[in-house]
Amino acid sequence: GENNMKNGNYSLDVPAVVIGYIASSILFLILGITLSSRFYYASWMINLGIVFLLIGLYMTYSSKVGKYKMRSEIIQRLSIKGNEMALDVGCGRGLLLNGVAAEFNTGKAYGIDIWNANDQSGNNYNAVMRNAKIEGTESKIKVINSDMREMPFQDGYFDIIVSSLAIHN
Fold it and tell me: Could you give the angle at which helices 43-61 and 15-36 cross, rounded to 10 degrees?
């Protein structure tokens, strides 16, 4: 199951935002340190630089560590038997999709996405399949390019439906 599973590469979430925070923090720290020696009121820049750095570091932690903890908690709460039909709406690189599929023996997990590269770096169908190969779930998943507003499934087709950080897009 989940605990002895090899984690796939699920990348940095919203990389442009993380880079923006860290770059801004460096800029404000340099400006603040340079200017505060002459103008005492410039110290707010140092404070803002520290805040931006902390936000950038937290977002990196959440992408690299936090999302695996979240996945484990969600999967535990689902009480999966192993024979269900599951759907991951906005599967991205397959974090939840592969996590759910790893718990299956006869079940099948479907993932749908339209893969917007702005939302997650290297975000595409091939990334999902690479992660499925790493995590040993290839035979238990089916991935479809589909918009969540017009899903190609009948009502009541799935026993389990999950979605994480997708609907806001």
Answer: 160
Mean pLDDT of 10-18: 75
Query: Hey, CA dihedral for 156, 157, 159, 162, is it positive or negative?
Result: negative
* CA pair distance 134, 164, nearest whole angstrom: 21
The residue behind tokens 């442009």 is 16
Could you give the CA distance from residue 127 to residue 129 in angstroms, rounded to a whole number?
5
Torsions phi, psi for 74 (to 5 deg): -60, -45
pTM for the whole structure: 0.71
Mean pLDDT taken over the chain: 87
Nearest to 12 by CA among 3, 2, 22: 22
Number of helices (H), then strands (E), belonging to the chain: the values are 5, 4
Average pLDDT over residues 28-53: 87
Whether 82 and 116 have beta carbons less than 8 Å apart is answered as no
Amino acid identity for residue 44 in this structure: W
